Amino acid sequence: MQKYGLIKTLKVGEHEIKLAGNAFTFILYKSYFGRDLLNDIIGFAKKNSGAVDLDPKNINLDNLDAFDFDTEFILNLIASLMATAQYPTKPDIGELIMGIPPHFLMDTEVIGQVLEFLSLFVNQKKA
What we know:
The protein is mostly helical. It has one domain (6-126). The protein is 49% helix and 11% strand. It contains 5 helices and 2 strands, in the order E-E-H-H-H-H-H. It has helices spanning 23-33, 37-47, 71-85, 93-98, 108-126; strands at residues 6-12, 15-21. Strands 1-2 form a two-stranded antiparallel sheet. The longest helix has 19 residues, at 108-126.
């Protein structure tokens, strides 16, 4: 099956997670978490407006102390992107979240890739 949207594979050591983002991601996010993804993205961006630039050319996480890290949002986002990549299967949300290696959340390279993916996804939605 041909997938459309943005597709990315996060790799750290032997761990690999496939992400896909498209319009269906918004539906899955709402279905899984009962929240609007766009509102959560805007809230995340506002909290980090000084620390994180969502322009993919400018993402720099050298100073994680300045970053208002919202673990719940990042986990929910990654899980929704993982679920989108597995479409048409709708995996259990608990299994998806448990499948995210804990060290991913503190790895600046992974967080940078997630934010880059998010920024590209948001910029694509604006177009």
